[in-house]
Amino acid sequence: MAKIEGFRIKNYRVLQDVTLGKLWNMQQAQPLTPMTAVIGKNGVGKSSLFDAFGFLADCLKLGVEEACDSRGRGGFDRIRSQGINDPVEFHIYYKQDGNARPITYELTIDADKTGRPYVKMERLRQRRRGQKYGRPFSFLILNEGKGVVWKGEEQGLQIDEDKGQLDLFKLIEEIESAPQKEESRETELIELQDTRKLGIATLGALKQHPRISAFRQFIEGWYLSYFTPDAARSLPLAGPQRHLNIHGDNIGNVVQFLEREHPKRFKNILNRIAEKIPGIDKIDTEESPDKRLLLRFNDKGFSDPFYAQQMSDGTLKIFAYLLLLEDPTPPPFVCIEEPENGLYHKLLETLAAEFRTHATGKKNAPQLFITTHQPYFVDALSPEETWILEKGGDGFSVIRRASDDATVKAMVDEGLPLGSLWYGDYLDAG
Predict the structure, then answer these.
(1) Burial of 400 (0-12, 13-18, 19+ CB in 10 A)
(2) 311 pLDDT band (50/70/90 cuts)?
């Protein structure tokens, strides 16, 4: 399954320039772990970091202008870092699978003369087979909707940024004037009709661009949790559904799907989940006379079941997270903001351990990205999994990996929980 090894965000709210993990030009850095947790106090940018992934996914689905206005973002001017006139940038360094050559995606979004956001630049690059060092070859280059894409799995253009910016229009002229050249036959000139749409959205639908298609599908598969207990208490129409949606209002339908399509593992799955929720003996579904689906929880101390509408926020939340992890065909990337909200503190270490087990212990497991400010949750994390987000002197966010602090790593090796160190201010900068 595809994995993000590193990413960089520039000029997105308080994230004026933050990098996590490994990039193509930072080969000495360690890649992100299967489960990555970002910790930090209130107001340091954790929500902005979570939303940055949601924004990128929305850009692919909706276009950049609508994405800027969606989910209460308030438009491009509210998204761009305060006092900054430079464009918003995203860099994602990922592998399609464990043995694949990494691919870098670069996206730049700016405002046009009318103030409307548009895609200023898009780029995909990858080293050629057998190339261990040096600059990767760009196989998609788009500037303001115009550019070049290379077909197949190997072609591309190696660009040395140190020698100045690529003259894309000159490259286009050369291709147009020499269509018989071997390289020209492997290229396709592109001019997008709408510069507010991502190029990968259009090109990723074409068979001649398998690398672009794979990356598009990767982002389309992201799961960003906007779960709310009230949504989970809704009464959907009966009918099995394969995947939990981002709000969780089809949670009963997913249980119904597992019951029908995976009967051998269904009981084991729910039993494992029930073991993690104090007091719960059994979980199943019931169909009402009007074909509504009721999610039913059987408490050990009561003969009659409780329904989702009667269960606590915390119970519904932990059930949704564990059900998501038990998806037979899970999303490649799962992003959860502050899973601790509404949960009993002694459940948090168990939940964190359960997240790690699923991220690391299964084939084709999803990569997990979590933000938290709860020390009990952090107690279950390793320094390699943990990134500390703080406010810098200029008001913008700065981030560092806990394992980069030799003292912290040594204290954890001695048996001190990471959350306790954070609570005791041992993880604070300086």
Answers:
(1) middle
(2) confident
For residues 214 and 244, state if they share a domain: no
Positive/negative CA dihedral, 42, 65, 109, 91: positive
- Residue 91: its H or E element: strand 88-95
Of the candidates 401, 427, 404, the residue with the CA atom closest to the CA atom of residue 416: 427
Residues 91 and 207 in one domain: yes
Is the domain of 318 the same as that of 341? Answer: no
- Domain containing 407: what range? 1-222+332-430
Look at residues 330, 347, 365 and tell me which one is the last residue of a structural domain.
Answer: 330
21 is written with which tokens? Answer: 């993990």
pTM of the model: 0.90
Could you write out the DSSP letters of every residue in 324-336?
Answer: HHT-SS--SEEEE
Last residue of some domain: 303, 330, 357? 330
Per-residue pLDDT tens digits for 132-182: 778 899 999 999 999 999 887 777 888 777 776 777 877 877 777 765 555
* Cβ–Cβ < 8 Å for 370, 402: no
